[in-house]
Amino acid sequence: MKARPIYFFDEGDPSDRRLLGGKGAGLCEMTKMGLPVPPGFVITTEACRSYYASGQKLPHGLMAGVRKSMARLEERTGKTWGSRNNPLLISVRSGAAISMPGMMDTILNVGLNDSSVEGLAISSGSRRFAWDSYRRLVQLFGKVVFGVDDSLFEAALEEAKRASKVELDSQLDDIALRRLVARYKDIFSRHAGRAFPADATEQLELAIDAVFRSWRGERAVVYREKNGITDEVADGTAINVVTMVFGNRGPGSATGVVFTRNPGTGERRIFGEYLANAQGEDVVAGSRTPKPISELRKEMPKMHARLEETCKLLEAHFREPQDIEFTIESGSFYLLQTRGAKMNAAAMVKTSVDMVSEGMFDRKRAIMRLGADQLEQLLHPTISAAAARGARQLAAGIAASPGAATGVAVLDVGRAVSAAKAGKPVILVREETRPEDVPAFFSSVGILTSKGGKTSHAAVVARGMGKPCIVGASSMRIDPAARVCISGEARIREGDTITIDGNSGAVYAGPVETIAPRVTRDFKTILGWARSFKALGVRANADTPEAARAAREGGAEGIGLCRTERMFNERDRIGLFVDMIMAENEARRREILAKLEVLQRNDFVKILRAMDGRPVTIRLLDPPLHEFLPNPAEFGERMARLRKIKAKRKMEAERALQRRAADLAEVNPMMGHRGVRVGVTFPEIYEMQIRAVFEAAIALSKKRVRAVAQIMVPQVGSAAELLHVRAIYDRVAAEAEAKHKARPRISFGTMIEVVRAALTSGELARTAEFFSFGTNDLTQATFSFSREDAESKFLPEYIEKGLVSASPFQSIDEAGVGELMATSARAGRAARKGLEVGICGEHGGDPSSIMFCHGAGLDYVSASPHRIPIALVAAAQAALAGDSAPGGAPRRKKRGAARR
Amino acid sequence: MKARPIYFFDEGDPSDRRLLGGKGAGLCEMTKMGLPVPPGFVITTEACRSYYASGQKLPHGLMAGVRKSMARLEERTGKTWGSRNNPLLISVRSGAAISMPGMMDTILNVGLNDSSVEGLAISSGSRRFAWDSYRRLVQLFGKVVFGVDDSLFEAALEEAKRASKVELDSQLDDIALRRLVARYKDIFSRHAGRAFPADATEQLELAIDAVFRSWRGERAVVYREKNGITDEVADGTAINVVTMVFGNRGPGSATGVVFTRNPGTGERRIFGEYLANAQGEDVVAGSRTPKPISELRKEMPKMHARLEETCKLLEAHFREPQDIEFTIESGSFYLLQTRGAKMNAAAMVKTSVDMVSEGMFDRKRAIMRLGADQLEQLLHPTISAAAARGARQLAAGIAASPGAATGVAVLDVGRAVSAAKAGKPVILVREETRPEDVPAFFSSVGILTSKGGKTSHAAVVARGMGKPCIVGASSMRIDPAARVCISGEARIREGDTITIDGNSGAVYAGPVETIAPRVTRDFKTILGWARSFKALGVRANADTPEAARAAREGGAEGIGLCRTERMFNERDRIGLFVDMIMAENEARRREILAKLEVLQRNDFVKILRAMDGRPVTIRLLDPPLHEFLPNPAEFGERMARLRKIKAKRKMEAERALQRRAADLAEVNPMMGHRGVRVGVTFPEIYEMQIRAVFEAAIALSKKRVRAVAQIMVPQVGSAAELLHVRAIYDRVAAEAEAKHKARPRISFGTMIEVVRAALTSGELARTAEFFSFGTNDLTQATFSFSREDAESKFLPEYIEKGLVSASPFQSIDEAGVGELMATSARAGRAARKGLEVGICGEHGGDPSSIMFCHGAGLDYVSASPHRIPIALVAAAQAALAGDSAPGGAPRRKKRGAARR
């Protein structure tokens, strides 16, 4: 059925936010609940789409419908539209499916003209109030509908105050205001090219056109781009035509905004502020300071009680904390808006737990309502509300990458690098950043820019690096020559200490106390619930015994990726490892490898012990050997120092290293001599590592410690490679068995990170007992994007131009990489029943990727230890989304769950 | 039906070479034709496989069958096995499905013992002959079956000659030989650990065991590895048991080898050599020099006529030139072997054309019998037979990469590079090569090694570079310290000029005249036939007007890849191009691009004109910009020179270049900021190129010259990228139309060289009118192999260890890359009817890849101009193989052919 273009608030279907807009849907819902909403109607987003489809013309018949609706509104309110006799006044408010605060236009007091203003004077009992309302209409209407420069009106207002010899707007009397209206109309007609429309319906028609037009206004378009709001989510704005109510009708009037629970803490108590005898505008104008809502209890105890009761009703109805606008007009209570409250992560977690215990909803909904991404806030340092209140805020921008950081402001890339080298924590402050600034990102603890949105270069790179970042702090003007940055009254000189809050977008002077992230009791409760719902296993990437212990404490169910090369980079071993690379022949290489084996075995013992029977996937050496070589001069020094030999030997060592480095140098190291390719050409390295795993497992089993090790081969592209390593594994296993009369069960598997491995997975699964998707490299190979190069050269521009919707290194590219993963998992399992399939790329900690992995039937995800909680919640959400998928068919069979 | 283990020559099915071996099948065929083959039988390769399957034991029942067969042989020959009375003697000859000359063992005169030797003396009428045959049996049997050191027998022979006071073996009389046999038996029993077996059947059993054993002898295994003979092609050897005939029974006896046509030229005349009154062994021993076969006409005119007649019969029967062994025993003519003659490419081409005109076979077979790869010989410089005869051969090895080259021998990598820099043509001579030697390959005109096979590092790298190469010239001993290389009597000092023939494996002293490659009349005939059969289009990769003209003359049906960046590297433009890269802003960049546009348009005009209406696929800029930057010092010089400015400006220019180079530098340039990614970030570059194509096409159309241009976008990974360039194309097309009132039909398509493009081809085909597979990059991405790094670091070892059967950069990897291609073509055509699909990677000139492309239903291949003839033949073979595929169903519909 085709939607009508207009719905009265008691007619619209509140569940259709896409049609009615968020605000409209809320007004309809509240009206249906019997709450006191001023009468009115919604013009739908569909009408807005027609408006654009027909070349920015109001759709045929719309105004006829509007006229009819206004007649109905007259009936309901008992007031008369555009008349002197108890005039009906309305506000015309935009409202898209997604809230875009302040981005589109709203016009108040529509319906006033020279005649109805007198009616308003009578019905309100205040001439001053009536003429002031009229003045405001002419100004706002001129500005919004005809683009008349606001400063012209402001100048006239100043002049009027001078003439009346008063200082404040509110001191102008009705006579002065009446004269000012005449002056305003004059300005209007001179700059709008027509007289101010006296006809109320003409006012309304022009206002509707202006609101529709504002949907594609520059501000709104930029906002949607910056916030990734696509046409699928919100296409066009609805318009709410609402009978005016006034919070400034005297002592019994007020207006305010309230949250049903504290959006910063989740505390169950209404939270907000109000102004007595005022309009919402007055808050914006700064002429009045709002009071906390608790004051209302003293000032208007009945109204406060009414408000509290309403909040409870709305929460019980929506089963979500609400964010409400209300107006009290001469003792009558009105609701002008309700919407789901935007809360920070801590508040979301607390309200989830509380509302379950209050019986508002069940644990499933408690999990589903959380933004898994938002939970990241809880895992970074944050600035407490108290500390923020005490700090001096210098500017505000868009919160682009979470976490808080304190450091010295540096306005130049080169100086940022040198300041960091000098040991200073640096906050890089730039108008915007460019690829050549990336080195400075590495040197900085946080990034602040005055331009750009959530997908700007700075935002994308900072998020990729996990560094706090604020972008688009547009009040700031940066003067690099003077090394200063000016924001309103404040100035930040280069070298000043500042603090940025990547969660809120606030920039503060000096250091501000931050709260270290910690898992609260409520969060623990949530994680417990998540664990009970999820199907996917959640493991951690950890390379050291310490990291393994931390991962286990964080709730990891195993280690999905233990990178053995990280162990070689430890201080006590890198020397040995370099000697191994420099060895003249295999015999010498084996000699050194024997020493490394002892160290590596000890690491494995500790890691396996820490995981106490949970699986540990140990990846054999992956990077190319040249990555381990120091610069030749350092190496020579070390040789000289360690072996107390002469300068000549030192130079020889340098030369040898240079030669070896030249031998090993590669054009494209990402796709070069690494992973299993090293295992094929220097089989003794893999042999050593495999033996170390066997020996570690045997040592633990002798001590009756449970140890479950898995050996994983990286960069495999063909079954032949895997068989080659398997032969080494078999030989080592046989030798270990002969020696110790014990055969630990150590499974043998492969990374799937080479495209060819994904394409030939059926064959690989004949040898591999498990697969683990290395989605970092798989993404690089699928796109032919070298990640480092892409992120510094062109990926930010790709995102900004909309060529990709998000970085494929952050969320799995389902059409390409995801397709390969699904094909691979399917073929692998067809070839080997019970093949274990997981993911250990960075995507393993990304909620939307976890959703994909669940759907693709993976057994587990492995994430960075600090993202384990996010992964747990995302895994639970994926499972619950599958359970409640429309049509009933879950995307995935619960095989993972069944197996455990 | 299970095969029997033994077939008499008149029983075996000659078409089953895999079962009977090549030699056995030939003997069976000739017997069935009624030709004079000595009676005998074949023990099958199946028996050999059973032998190995049961742990090197003769299969159960085999010897019973052999005994029965010997009884039948007695009947047929009227001779008696192992008896003094007209004894039956036999040879035991190996013979696998694939000829492996000299690699396995053969034993003659089996059946002689103290008793039968007397019978032989009577039947042959020569005691000396009988005892000499016996002596030879003991020696060969001792050596082959029991591994008795040959030199022990040789020493005894020398002693016998001393005792008899004679110089030649042939001067020993029967008494001395009888004594020598006793001595030989003594040696035998001492070193074999048992007495020489007197029982004929025991001799035969041991001989059979020895021949089977030799299949896995080291020599044979290495040969098969070096020549890529897998178990699929030949698994096990058959054994031929043949009644002995003797070419040394007096003046009416002879033995020889003959080709039915000249294997070097294809000339239709028998070609070969023979020895009168001798055995084949005598040739090997070097004691006699064979005479050309033409002499036989004078010496034994009847036998010569018989031979010619037999050759005709065999050719008529096999419909292929044959390579024949014959023996004349006292005026009786016997055939001992026939097989298809191995000929060089020129002879193959000539015989193909000749035999069609002789009515021997049709044009299809004429095409199918050619080795498309072998034709490469005709496209490289070659050494004429005459020149080779006149030259002094120093050594011989395995022909690993075709073509002939003359240069100075250099034994050291560093010196090779410096000699090349000094302008000398270098032949690199090494024991074997290693990755670090690759720079010297670039500096050399040819490579010669004393070790390694066809898949050794040297062979793989040289073939990849298209340089002549000989490997495994094992007679050579290289002494790098003395800078000399010794081969038998010959010495090659470093700096000596040598010539290598990569077609034959011969190494010659000094320069040897080479013949430039040219397409002969016969070859042209073949290419004409090929054109009539093929379904695939054959285009050329060409970047300049000259190359385009050459490609068209060579028979190219279009240009499948015209790389525009090559044009920027020309002397007169690289400066401008660098200026463009260095431009401070878009305006300056556009200014320079306008100049480049003029040059590029002129190139396009010339290329399109040269192709006269045939399609020309123009690829937009592909490499990363940094590839074009000169080294900063050079750039500064150029700036200084060109603009006559001061040293300070020169340094500024250098510094600017350094900065820009640092900006643009990449970690993995293969997967970096290149192709369409440059087109997205610097759209003005692509805009310029697209406009140049449009303007060129319009200019030609005004002159009524037919021009068919296709614009191709490189490195595309998503539909969004392609749409981005398409928008530029549409704008440029509209502008051109507005300006010239003409709209040339220029199609718009994409490379498929990024994995993601192959995976999302359905979407791409909505925008692309054609696909062209860039299999070089697609192979790199599918394997995660950077080609340069892989070929210099690990790919040769992969090939040697059997991890890949051939370099995936030479022949398409069907399981991985081929799978992606097939998926892509399928999805593309499903989305767009009539989508043109081709290939422009180097694989487009590789016969097995062309076969794959035909099967995958591609429309055309595009190859390097010099490989066009190979591509034509391979395309024809692919089409013909499809036509005659068993089961009748061609792998591909003839869509390409239908379209033209």
Structure characterization notes:
Two copies of one chain form a homodimer. The first copy, chain A, is of the alpha/beta class and 900 residues long. Chain A is 48% helix and 17% strand. The first copy, chain A, has an eight-stranded mixed beta sheet with strand order 14-24-23-16-17-18-19-15. In chain A, a hairpin with a 4-residue loop joins strand 20 and strand 21. In chain A, helix 20 runs parallel beside helix 23 (586-611), helix 24 crosses helix 25 (647-664) and helix 27 (683-702) packs across helix 28. The model of chain A is unreliable at 885-891 and 893-900 (pLDDT under 50). Chains A and B meet through helix 26, helix 28, helix 29, helix 31 and helix 32 of A and helix 26, helix 28, helix 29, helix 31 and helix 32 of B.
Quick structural gist:
By secondary structure, the first copy, chain A, is of the alpha/beta class. The radius of gyration of chain A is 33 Å and the shape is elongated.
How are the SSEs ordered, and which strands pair?
Two copies of one chain form a homodimer.
Chain A: E1 6-8, H1 17-32, E2 40-43, H2 45-53, H3 62-77, E3 80-81, E4 87-88, E5 90-96, E6 106-110, H4 116-124, H5 127-146, H6 150-164, H7 174-192, H8 200-214, H9 218-226, E7 237-243, E8 254-259, E9 271-276, H10 280-285, E10 291-292, H11 294-299, H12 301-318, E11 322-329, E12 332-340, H13 345-357, H14 363-368, E13 382-383, H15 385-390, E14 393-396, E15 398-401, E16 404-410, H16 413-421, E17 426-430, H17 438-443, E18 446-449, H18 457-465, E19 469-471, E20 476-479, E21 484-487, E22 490-493, E23 497-501, E24 506-509, E25 514-515, H19 521-533, E26 537-541, H20 545-553, E27 559-563, H21 564-568, H22 571-582, H23 586-611, E28 615-619, H24 632-643, H25 647-664, H26 676-681, H27 683-702, E29 708-713, H28 719-740, E30 747-752, H29 755-759, H30 761-764, E31 770-773, H31 775-783, H32 787-793, H33 795-800, H34 814-831, E32 836-839, H35 847-855, E33 860-863, H36 868-883, H37 895-899
Parallel strand pairs in A: 3-4, 16-17, 17-18, 18-19, 26-27, 26-33, 27-28, 28-29, 29-30, 30-31, 31-32, 32-33
Antiparallel strand pairs in A: 1-2, 2-7, 5-6, 5-7, 8-9, 8-11, 9-10, 11-12, 13-25, 14-24, 15-19, 16-23, 20-21, 21-22, 23-24
Helix pairs in contact in A: 4-5, 5-7, 5-8, 6-7, 13-19, 19-36, 20-23, 22-23, 23-27, 24-25, 27-28, 35-36
